[in-house]
Specification:
Helix content: 10-25%
Number of domains: 1
CATH superfamily: Vaccinia Virus protein VP39
CATH architecture: 3-Layer(aba) Sandwich
Low-confidence stretches: none
Number of strands: 12
Largest sheet: 10 strands, mixed
Strand order of the largest sheet: 8-9-5-4-1-2-3-12-11-10
Strand content: 25-35%
Mean pLDDT: 86
Shape: globular
Number of helices: 9
CATH class: Alpha Beta
Radius of gyration: 19 Å
Distance between the termini: 17 Å
Structural class: alpha/beta
Amino acid sequence: MNDFSLLDFEKLWKGREKVTTVEREVILSMIDLSPEMKVLEIGAGNGRITQALAGKFRRYYALDVTPSFLEQINPPPGANKLIRIGGDLYNMPFLDDSLDTIVMIRVFNFLQSPEMAFREFARVLKPGGSAIISFFHTGSVATILDRVKHKGKTAVPGSRHARRVLNSNFEESFYSVSYFKEMSSAAGFRAVSSRSCGLEDYSPFAPLPAKLFVKLSVLPDVLGLFPHVFIYIQKVGAHPAAIRNDEEIMACPDCHELIFTEFLHSGQATNCRNCGHNFEIRNGVIYV
């Protein structure tokens, strides 16, 4: 698994506030803002996206494989709705068919097993539930230039190569949009819509307002100008007649047995009553 622990978010995002603004607005334009929803953000990091979304829903779960990142999140208004979880996206601590929406931004390119991730998304989402996933795709001007720069070693659908990102050596993968849709379809999803962005991250476009890039994101990217795409996918199947709206949906990642989250407020460790898996809380983050 990639080791992200040395990633310096402050250094990575310094001077790139416009990118965050555009991406947040694109997500807000795509996501269902029903306040009763339970939403999971995967790869939440230090809360760059979390800050804009966490207070808008009944419950917002922020998951990251590096719990120390989650400790950096300054809880936004409605902080009682935010639950931070240090855990593995391939074995998530949720009941089957329990979440309404998954948000995953700038993480997909670093997944070592995207097919396995899609299967796990399908397990935890309710029938008819959705996911908004962003990634850098092949076929854009940016990835073509990147391919030339690296002498053809990048931007091949499904290929992997190691790339140095700040102080970490991440294994990064590139996929075409059609390949992404094939993988998600195989796991039981259908693609509903997409938005394109990423030009705001390039210095020649820096003087332009963020609102312009948000408006441009709805245009079909027929020329491959936008390097970053957001795709809204939906789990095949209608919502059941009686939607489970349980307050408790966290489960053991090993046996998927329901766990009760009273320990969130007590700060005490707890164990799965079925298999004994240990859960701890440190600095407000649940370690699973």
